[in-house]
Write a structure and sequence with these properties.
Serine Threonine Protein Phosphatase 5, Tetratricopeptide repeat; mainly alpha
Length: 263
């Protein structure tokens, strides 16, 4: 789910290994970079930096299970290390394991209630229709940090998730008023309008989002969906293709093109 991935990116190639798939089941080759990191850890077992580099190596290569396992081993020895909880929360968020991500963010917020951590947790609460999202947003509003835009955005997400699209739109508009460069608020407002069947209005909002960021692949994707609803197939195809131009791994855009008969 791209929205969950975007939540984690607010704070922050796939590695498949050389797995032999024939019947001999030969041992999987370990990349030299991983061997080198592990050798360094063996030589300096007390180095947290080296262990974090290994986790980052797994993460960069899409091996989330191994990255999370390595993080958990460190947490077993240091359960109140906020840096480790941040890493664990980010990994689960990017791996789209919502429940485990929420638990990790909760632990992090207890240890280190920074605005960016509260926002990440509040956004996940909102996605899962958990009313705690509203208390997280209020906590942001009461903090000394300039976090009004984020708080309004979280409230909009919550009401959108729970089906109150009109109320959600009002909060997204307030978030945009507080920060006109908040491209995610434009996107979420447009999605609400789309859900309400107001496709032309949604297109106008998405056009504004593209003024803010011309490489906004999600704006192009949702424009494609709006044009589909308006029976404008060619415009829909063009926008899905633009989404893929800026994000070749945008699976939803590729699937949408496939349904329109475009490979």
């Amino acid at each position: 789910m791209k929205k969950l991935l975007l939540c984690s990116l607010l704070l922050a190639g796939l590695f498949t290994g050389c797995k032999n798939k024939d019947s001999t089941q030969e041992e999987v080759a370990v990349p030299e970079a991983e061997k080198s990191l592990q050798a360094s850890i063996d030589q300096y077992p007390d180095s947290f930096l080296l262990k974090e580099k290994l986790i980052q190596y797994y993460r960069d290569n899409g091996s989330y299970d191994r990255a999370i396992a390595a993080t958990d081993r460190l947490l077993q020895k240091d359960t109140i290390n906020s840096r480790l909880w941040f890493i664990k929360a980010t990994l689960h968020s990017e791996n789209e394991d919502t429940l485990k991500a929420i638990k990790a963010w909760e632990n992090l917020v207890l240890l280190e209630p920074l605005p960016e951590h509260i926002m990440a947790l509040g956004s996940l609460y909102a996605f899962t229709k958990d009313a705690h999202a509203l208390s997280m947003a209020d906590a942001l509003l009461q903090s000394k940090a300039n976090a009004a835009t984020q708080a309004l955005f979280i409230k909009g997400l919550y009401y959108s998730s729970t089906g109150d699209k009109i109320k959600a739109i009002a909060f997204f508009e307030d978030a945009i008023s507080a920060d006109y460069t908040n491209s995610m608020a434009y996107r979420e407002k447009a999605i609400c309008l789309y859900d309400l069947g107001k496709y032309v209005d949604a297109l106008k909002v998405l056009e504004l989002a593209l003024v803010i960021k011309k490489t906004n692949e999600e704006a192009y994707f949702w424009m494609g969906k709006c044009f589909e609803k308006l029976d404008k197939k060619e415009q829909a195809i063009q926008n899905y293709q633009m989404a893929l131009q800026f994000d070749p791994n945008y699976i939803e855009a590729r699937d949408a093109l496939g349904k329109l008969g475009v490979k």
